């Protein structure tokens, strides 16, 4: 009976948050590999700043605070940001980090000014939908155990964030697979890729746009903490462990999954094991675990060639 109750409680309270966190980690880690190699890893941090004006504009247009208007506003602002970053990088000949810094600080400041001047600062704008998230609240109340996975009525009560995150993750994997060869050529030798006739500008814009879509979708479910960490930590950890791109991508996905699962378990049960009364933030613990993985890889990074051969 105890094991049955534990199984039912796990399905109801932990299964969907765990799946959503894992899917978000995968959706961010995959394009993060190419962003790391292209020195654009901070695009996730940039997007977390530029969504504010999009959220405010969405509220001013619709007059309501709900998920889809906020998501559309945040996504539109993110797309504007990546276009501006590419324009500054390519035609302004700015270093990628400088271009991102200029764009996300300018748009974030514009969002703050718009928030104050439009008299919406006194309204409870639910920025949580796009920035903070609340992974622990995405529970499956209609579940009564593992049998609910085959129950259409119970499945209808799944958190909508799970379906959205699953769809976005599938799109990310599909597009990255379809454009794998052009992305590899563009990443390692942009001049050669252009000489081969590849649309380098469109590919670069497509990569950052896809990253923006993954980031905004993940913000609604898990918050910016996990998003920024997963864009950087798993790919950077894998990069320190191998020099082969294929191996790096698979390692980064494995590390992302391990960080999501380990972090969620430690957030819920770690404090209890240590005698504390309350759990800690799942998003924060997942990011912390991914950072610890990176630290371990960095310490042993000098042996990267040996690890790659092994």
TrEMBL record:
Q: Which domain of life is it from?
A: Bacteria
What's in the keyword line of the UniProt record?
Cell membrane, Membrane, Transmembrane, Transmembrane helix, Transport
The annotated topology with respect to the bilayer is: Multi-pass membrane protein
Chief location: membrane
- State the Pfam families in the record: ABC-3
Q: Which family does it belong to?
A: Belongs to the ABC-3 integral membrane protein family.
Q: What is this protein called?
A: Metal ABC transporter permease
């Amino acid at each position: 009976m105890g094991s049955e109750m534990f199984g039912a409680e796990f399905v109801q309270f932990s299964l969907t948050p765990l799946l959503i966190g894992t899917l978000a980690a995968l959706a961010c880690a995959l394009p993060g590999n190419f962003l790391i190699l292209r020195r654009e890893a901070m695009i996730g941090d940039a997007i977390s700043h530029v969504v504010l004006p999009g959220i405010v504009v969405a509220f001013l247009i619709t007059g309501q605070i709900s998920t889809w208007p906020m998501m559309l506003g945040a996504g539109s602002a993110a797309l504007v940001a990546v276009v501006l970053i590419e324009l500054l990088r390519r035609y302004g000949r700015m270093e990628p980090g400088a271009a991102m810094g200029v764009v996300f600080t300018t748009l974030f400041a514009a969002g703050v000014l718009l928030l104050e001047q439009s008299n919406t600062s006194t309204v409870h704008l639910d920025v949580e939908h796009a920035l903070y998230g609340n992974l622990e609240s995405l529970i499956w109340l209609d579940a009564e155990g593992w049998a609910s996975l085959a129950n259409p009525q119970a499945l209808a009560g799944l958190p909508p964030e799970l379906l959205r995150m699953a769809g976005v993750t599938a799109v990310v994997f599909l597009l990255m697979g379809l454009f794998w060869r052009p992305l590899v050529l563009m990443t390692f030798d942009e001049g050669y890729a252009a000489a081969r006739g590849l649309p380098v500008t469109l590919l670069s814009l497509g990569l950052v746009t896809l990253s923006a879509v993954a980031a905004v979708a993940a913000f609604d479910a898990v918050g910016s903490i996990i998003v920024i960490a997963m864009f950087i930590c798993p790919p950077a950890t894998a990069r320190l462990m191998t020099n082969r791109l294929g191996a790096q991508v698979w390692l980064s996905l494995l590390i992302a999954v391990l960080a999501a699962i380990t972090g969620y378990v430690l957030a819920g049960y770690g404090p209890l094991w240590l005698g504390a009364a309350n759990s800690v933030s799942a998003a924060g613990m997942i990011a912390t675990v991914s950072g610890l993985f990176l630290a371990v890889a960095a310490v042993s990074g000098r042996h990267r060639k040996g690890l790659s051969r092994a």
